[in-house]
Amino acid sequence: MADVLSLLILVPLAGSGATYTLSSLGGGRRWSSYIAAAFALATLFLAGYAFWSVYSATPAVGQYAFTEDHPWIAVPGFGVDILLGLDGLSAPLVFVASILGVLSILSARSLIDKREPAFYALLLLAEASIMGAFASLNLVVFYLFWELTLVPVFFLIGVWGGDRRRYAALKFIIFTFAGSAVMLLGFLALYFGVSANTFDIPSLVAMGVPAGLQYLPLLAVFVGFAVELPVFPFHSWQPDAYEQAPAPVNVLLSGLLPKFAGYALIRIGLSLFPQAASQYAWAFIVVAVVSMFFGAVVALLQSDLKRMFAYTSISHMGFVLFGCFATVVSGNPLGIEGAILLMFTHALATGALFTVSGFVEKQSGTRKIPLLGSMGQWAPLTAGLLAVASSAAMGIPPFASFLAELMVISGGISAYAVAAVTVLVPVITGGYFLWMLKRVVIDPPAGGASTGGSGDISRGDAAVIIAYFVPLILLTAFSFLILSPAAPVAQLAINLAHGGIAP
Amino acid sequence: MTDYILVAVAALVAGALGAPFLQFVGGKKDPGRYAGYVAVAALLAAIAATALNSATKTSTSPAFGALLSSNALGNLFALLTLSVTLFVAVASFTLVRQGSAANSPLYYSLLSFAALGMLLISYAADLLVLFVAWELMSIPTYALAGFLKKEEASNEAAVKYAVLGALSSAIILYAISLTYGLTGTTSITGAASSLGSQLSDPVAGLAILLFIVGFGFKMSLVPFHMWAPDAYEGAPTPIAALFAAGTKKAGFVATIRVVLAISTVYSLTPQGGLFTIPNVLAVLALATMTVGNLAALTQKSMTRLLAYSSIAQAGYILIGFVIYSYGQGNPAFAQQAQVGMTGALFHIINHSVMKGAAFLGAGLVILKLGNGNLDSFDGLARRMPVTAFTLAVSFLALAGVPPLSGFWSKLLLFTSVLNGPYAWLAVAGVLNSALSMGYYGWAVKRMYFDEPGGDSSPVGEPASMVVVFGVLVALIVAFGLLPGPVISFAQNAVPPLGVP
Questions:
Q1: A:B CB pairs within 8 Å
Q2: Across the interface, do B491 and A76 touch by the CB < 8 Å criterion?
Q3: Which distant-in-sequence residues (6+ apart) come within 8 Å of A111 by Cβ?
Q4: I need a labelling partner for A141 at 20 to 30 A (CA). Which of A503, B32, B171, B304 fits?
């Protein structure tokens, strides 16, 4: 088990090829989901092993486990290495990505009914590159995997999406490509700017980026994060993409792609540009808080389930940004630790929400809240799952989302006492989720137009959704699995921000 | 000592002169067929000879007296342009049907002459050889652009291209005569080094500027690009591929050899100041990529879209020229200059492959579906899956999506200028790449997501084209996954700084 991280990338990649070729050769479409699920399960085991190892032998501050270094380009004067490694930041993300990979494939069995081999192949390709992004410690390789993820997602939205899929897919690729291209500028400036002449993040952190080269690159990099996360006002592509994507793709799109930005914010933004980050932390916190409130308030106004969840996501990703910069200001590790936990719980909660919305649409033919109604009567199981998923997203105990939001807000208060107003965000979130549940589950449909759909969700599909809740509940008791490896990550950011001492 | 360049020249001359005679051998039905085979054989022989030259002669060595110079830079461009011509010739078997069949042997003969011109430009070490080779390349392409002689668009393309091409040749010749007057030599190295020391004379600055303008026509730099969209659209599509992937590159190698070799003082005016070679090139780069991308966004015909995208790509390549030229005068930037020129050469190679694939794919669609409007690309993935896939891969590579080939060369180009006075050029380049996703992504959307407009039945894709597409896609992916060897090859071809 030497090259665990290479395998983490190669197994789903091989799965992608195998799913497409094997199902095209013979057996046909029926088998494609089984083949894909088998590869996704193998990935899950690898990721679980890696996650557990990082917990049981947490790397010290600024160190990584499972490191691999494969020189890719090595010509005189220019080099790019495939440098991989895991720590308390990336291990939970890799793990949650592998969970979502399996669950999205399982839910797709009922939700996708055309060109399955290509669908599962693209889904696994996306998973492989997501793994690569979280595992890479080289700026160019990270960017490469980030970009590579956009291409399969572009096709997944454009071919299998809803009515306005073409528009949404194009908007998605143009926005995210533009954002990440600007981010790339921030990366490239470091090569000749830092005397190390390298793109390896650990070397750049150890060397320290000159103060003069921190401000504009941080801004460039932040534009990339802001589009991907997304934060207000860079979010315009996101409700369209989330609304039009098929539910299994939503799971990756909303559960994992924003985590690229959250991951890179801590790994790159705070570590390479600590001086600029702490000097302008207040500005980023303002952006984060505005985004939190904006997402929550706009979600209140949505009449489409998926659009509502999309804006919820904007609000939650605001928490991640908020927590990170709160730690930079106050030196209190709660913010970053809470942000890492929140990324994990948000991935599962939002995955569950979007999967349920896929089944709601499949059974009733619509996702419009006013047209849905009395779901508690005609589809009690779906309604129950929707209620539980909503509770997870609202951050109600016993779901670990509660703990994560609590940590971020406490961290925020220790930075700026005024930030206490952010406790209102979970309140608003709870309010609109309950209102949505009242309209969808209890009230009769507006105007009595819809009389319900074609029956309830099957038990097997319900089990897939319940699988999202299990880790969320377990984590409340076992939060140390994530929080204890997260401590050195937060410590590194604090060391760099306060005194700029490299580890 | 075997002179491989001589072998390559002989092969192409034989091909060019031999092809027309085969009109009488092949019979009335398909007179061009044997001529095509002869041209392909000649090109293969020339490529083999050039490859041997590249493999056996590791150092710079003069050939034909001092008129040609066999070095790594020349090998790179010779191999590249000959290979492009080979692909164009093979694709022409399928793609050139509309033209008057009786003229076909002539078509391959002209193609071989153009290849000979490009070969000689790659190795030219003397300004007059460069000029003769330039004309040898250009004149056949004027005829080739107008080859569809019954089509008005083709005639218009040929006339426009020939007039502007003749103008650019005249400008180059004027620059050569000024240079000779100033330096008393037509040897490129000699002229470049003494032009550098004679820069107190404003005429020297004028000569350099005229070189940039003259070569700029072929590189289709803005504002010398006016001919390109019309010529690309009117010419038979394989010839458009030749323009974008082949003859354009001759402009680049000429610029590297003549303009960028001026090392000692790089200011165009005696007082120095803003009017320097890198500044002029930087402004041209900015204008070229921005105008190219903005214009491409509004096109309705695929060949015009590709023509403008080709213009934009020339702007990215110039970024490497800017930093190289700047490095000539600033030793502190030597490493960045090296990386930038490596990126430029790598992007030149990549652009040939990507644009070759795109034009040949578009050519097949035009041949099969009858027109090149973007509408006919709707739902293409269902009708012509291999062609659509080739086009999609080449578009994504042109936009710079990793891990395809175009990503790495752009990465080298942008990295090289991000520190220093031309950082704004990298910012412009990245924003332009993002902008270009607007039309590349849109084209992919049309092919893969949209429904075919009218007829949606599958269209046959000839086996020969499938092979050509397969090779080109494989190259795009391979250069992306394993860029190391190609980057090394490009880096070896970078002329050393300070030694013209």
A1: 104
A2: yes
A3: A246, A247, A248, A358, A359, A362
A4: A503
